[in-house]
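> example.struct
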């Protein structure tokens, strides 16, 4: 009998964390969006480990005891990394989580409005949404991205994270990281 690692239906993606530990993600060889470790999920996961969030010298992590929700990141890599860095139980986020993590959620036209509405419902005045997405330039993707930001920026302000604040190895010119917060009028 074949093990999961030997199966033709799966292959293993190993993501090494900065502390040397390794997360082994079983990715489907065939399937839909939830079966894949997306590049934006890896970029966001590595961003969560950067010095601005995790001090190597002191061992202090911004994520310790923070309530975090992950929205749509394929196999859940981002949420798993956040949990290994000390992220709290998602059941305890009421009334609002400290962080909402989103990786590669902006590409289905039919999900744009429900996604923005979900963010409006979940995000409180202190919530930081960290949105990481691959900027796609073919087909209807530019229009979907444009529509998403038209709706989102009515309620939220956006700050793009420059490459020098991202992981030096795990970044890409076509993958953007944004910090989003509710507008304060």
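> example.seq
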């Amino acid at each position: 009998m074949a093990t999961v690692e030997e199966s033709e239906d799966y292959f293993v993606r190993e993501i090494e964390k900065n502390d040397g530990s390794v997360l082994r993600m079983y990715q489907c060889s065939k399937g839909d969006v939830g079966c894949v470790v997306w590049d934006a999920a890896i970029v966001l996961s590595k961003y969560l480990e950067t010095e601005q969030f995790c001090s190597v010298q002191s061992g202090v992590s911004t994520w310790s005891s923070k309530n975090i929700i992950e929205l749509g990141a394929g196999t859940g890599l981002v949420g798993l990394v956040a949990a290994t860095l000390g992220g709290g139980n998602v059941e305890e986020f009421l009334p609002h989580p400290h962080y909402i993590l989103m990786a590669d959620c902006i590409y289905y036209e039919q999900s744009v409005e429900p996604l923005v509405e979900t963010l409006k419902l979940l995000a409180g005045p202190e919530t930081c949404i960290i949105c990481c997405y691959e900027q796609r330039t073919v087909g209807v993707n530019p229009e979907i991205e444009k529509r998403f930001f038209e709706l989102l920026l009515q309620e939220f302000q956006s700050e793009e994270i420059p490459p020098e604040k991202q992981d030096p190895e795990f970044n890409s010119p076509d993958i953007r990281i944004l910090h989003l917060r509710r507008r304060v009028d």
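> remarks
The CA atoms of residues 53 and 62 lie 5 Å apart.
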